[in-house]
Amino acid sequence: MIAEFGLAALWLAAALAGLQLLGGFAGLRAGGEGLAALVRPAAVVQALLCALAFGALLLLFVRTDLSVALVAKNSHSAKPFIFKLAGAWGNHEGSMLLWVAVMALAGGLIAAVERRLPERTMLATLGAQAFVGLGFYAFLLASSNPFERLAQPPAEGMGLNPLLQDIGLALHPPTLYMGYVGLSVAFSFAVGALLTRQVTPDFAKVMRPWVLGAWIFLTLGITAGSYWAYYELGWGGWWFWDPVENASLMPWLAATALLHSASVLASRDALRTWTLLLGVVAFSMSMVGTFLVRSGILTSVHTFASDPTRGLVILALLALVIGGAFALFAFRAAALRQGGLFAPVSREGALILNNLFLATAVGAVLVGTLYPLLLDALTGTTISVGAPFFDLTFGALMAPLLLVLPFGPLLAWKRADIVGAAQRLMGAAALAIFATILISALGGVTISLAPIGLLLGFWVAFGAVAELVDRSKLGRIPLGESARRLIGLPRTAWSTAIAHFGIGITVLGIVAVSAWETELVTTLNPGESAELSGYIIAFDSFEQVPGPNYLSDEGHFTVTAPDGGTRQMMADRRTYVASGMPTTEAAIETYGFSQLYLQLGEPLDNTHVVRIWHKPYITLIWLGAILMAFAGVLSLTDRKLRVGAPRRAAKTTPQAAQ
Amino acid sequence: MTWLRALLLALCLATPVAALSPDEVLPDPVLEQRARDISAGLRCLVCQNQSIDDSDADLAKDLRVLVRERLVAGDSDEAVRQYLVDRYGEYVLLNPRVNSHTILLWVAAPGLLLAGLGTLFVVGRRRRTVNAGLSAEEQAALDELK
Predict the structure, then answer these.
(1) How far apart are CA A377 and CA A423, in angstroms?
(2) In terms of domains, do B79 and B8 share one?
(3) pTM of the predicted model, to two decimals?
(4) Does B91 sit within 8 Å of A382, measured CB to CB?
(5) Is A10 left (phi over 0), alpha (psi -120 to 50) or beta?
(6) Same domain, B128 and B71
(7) What does the pLDDT look like over A634-651, one tens digit per residue?
(8) Is the same domain home to B6 and B38?
(9) Of residues A329 and A593, more confidently modeled
(10) Which of A383, A393, A448, A611 to mutate to test the interface with B (most CBs of B within 10 A)?
(11) Which domain holds residue B16?
(12) Is the complex ipTM higher than 0.95?
């Protein structure tokens, strides 16, 4: 009954989305008020129904109801509870239901509480949200029904892929989906504003928390995914430029750009068209990512062509949503009035430059990801576009962005003094050069780009601090006064500084681990030891232990650090009972910001292959990202960018009416 | 969505042979480093977007051994890559070479950046001219106020 109940709830929710769409567009015309009054309640009830449907799926997985096809295919009665839950969304159908549920909840939330924009714009926004939602309902109900029953339930489920039985990964997809859905809300706001032509600073302020929230979730989701790949896949890589990773990076880059342009719109009423365009692009990137991952096109263009149902449905959805939005944009953009004016050298100008580089990076990653697929489809030529290509292209685009980044926050709105900003950054520049020379001398230049990377990382990090120093007038006024100013700074100033500092930290981590990582591949027997970068790794013992649903070969090690301290490490190899599939669980020990990474390989001629890596400052990569996410949360709590917040009187002379 | 990637990786793990193992490592560290650098740019053909240096698959191991054999035989880095391209096609290179098939790929990013800069330049100039002066009508209105 539970499965049928869930399916019924889903169908009802889809019907309500249809009603919401009709009501939204009725609201744009005179005389449509009756239908329009139903829009908000429809969205709220839809949210409840979707929550019920997802709850039903969770319950089915908890009970391991094997008469449901999805449960039989992805679960197993012997699985730990948390992974039974995670199994509900660790597959295609379940994850699509999760997406739809989160999207409906977001829509319900806006419908219930958002009353700051003109009602017509809100109706158009909710209508647009329902339009996107309908596409996903159609996809779910027509080609990915998660509640399908089996005529003959099997005696036992097939189990969740062992690689996925991991807490980090259990939380990874929901986090990313929150991000994608947040961007769908931003998209709907953009479409709503285009339909009613009301692109105002208030619109940007209403949209901003959704973009920011999406950005925070995407940042955390990508970080978690990266760390998961690092410790689970067993060779210590943290980013692979895999199309599936690119699928989450592209929306993140677009959301980062949107965040910056929305702040211009909210504060200065400029960049109206561009912000709308980015709103459309950011969600389009989420959709493209979903298409890439869900259609099976990545495995091969040919498998996609042989079973194209799902792929084609998403492709049609993609074309409809994105194409429709771009057509609307092309039709309406010219009618939007130009917003506030500014000189090229100004905070606005700097943010445009930021947007230019980020948007180009989105384009570069998109082309790199799709090119081999298109080339294969069109000419039959197969090529690979992998990490070396992306490192080069992406790096070349990020370097100039990082170079100009510290200037942005120091420039005034409208018209700024670049020489003044440069003077205020002299200290940061000097410190960055000094730190780079010092570290290059200590670590040795192993790869020629390392000093440039270090310089950029330090420059961005110190530049972010320089902004706080400058705004608190540190050193120019008494210390207590400076501290008071520092505390009194708006939270957006703090969050800008922290986020930019985080970028610097991440860059430093990337450079350090690329330049100074050491590796040792060797064979060891219990009782023997190896040495790497000053660490002595002694192989103590080897034993075979049964786990809850796997058999484990455990290697126990004692590591003596350069400072003489010893720690125990355990690396194991697991063979899962249900599938017979082996996985390796690396042992990772953190020393300061660096990590020792130890992997137990297969037996070789009666000894054990052991791989050891020393990864200097690798945790900075994720710490920087966490700082960025924290800055996002901080910015979310700032009062300044709320609708109705008191505005400071303009200091400049009033502008002539346009 | 990393789970899908994991699933594809799982296909590679189906035959439990470890990535680079000690018996493959060349005694000459300079040659070995060259082998590692070349390996990082070669695709494991049966895997999802993994280099042969990272992959556990049997084929990756064979290719790693092949790369080392060619290096020991005295081939240059480029000759080793060419040797593999001759056997497996351009698909084996993770960093595609510039040719008629890939030229669009290589010019895409710089092209986008230039197009963006050009657009900014044009829009900026148009705005400046639009806002440069008052129209005759506005000037007349202003004169009236004086």
Answers:
(1) 54
(2) yes
(3) 0.89
(4) yes
(5) alpha
(6) no
(7) 998 876 655 555 444 444
(8) yes
(9) A593
(10) A383
(11) 2-92
(12) no
